[in-house]
Amino acid sequence: MGLTYANLELENAWGKRRIPARALVDSGAVFMIVPEHTALQLGYDLDETSQREVILADGSRRIVPMVGPLRVHFGDRYCDLSALVFGDEPLMGAGPMEMMDLVLHPTTQTVTVNPASPYLPVAAAK
User: Fold this and answer.
1) d(CA 80, CA 103)
2) What pLDDT, in 10s, does the model give residues 57-92?
């Protein structure tokens, strides 16, 4: 097994800027993460964003910008959310995957639409 990547399109829902992105998929992460240069390309002003304290894998804490609304597109599905800004590549965590009803296949290193709901994302609301 190795790293899984997905081809996404990221869109600033206010500015209507849309760019393609290859994102690392990590079901152990929760948020969508974009690097600073991607947030700037999308037209977000990092001086006028909210901030969030995050705990990194090594246990260290860091305060990072949070931008949004960000629309994340995968195939014919999308979700609207906020994204943390840091790192050197986009990362799609479990949150956006659940919102779009996507399935991660680690053995084939692919992400697909849930075959049980091919036409419309389904979410558990219990």
Assistant:
1) 18
2) 899 999 999 999 999 999 999 999 999 999 999 999
- Residue found under tokens 């690392």: 24
Contact 61, 55 (CB under 8 A): yes
pLDDT value for 22: 98
Q: Is the pTM of this model over 0.90?
A: yes
Q: How far is CA 13 from each of CA 6, 43, 93, 126, rounded to the nearest angstrom?
A: 20, 10, 20, 29
3-state SS of the chain is CCCEEEEEEEEECCCCCEEEEEEEECCCCCCEEECHHHHHHCCCCHHHCEEEEEECCCCCEEEEEEEEEEEEEECCEEEEEEEEECCCCCEECHHHHHHHCEEEECCCCEEEECCCCCCCCCCCCC
Distance CA 74, CA 52 (A): 26
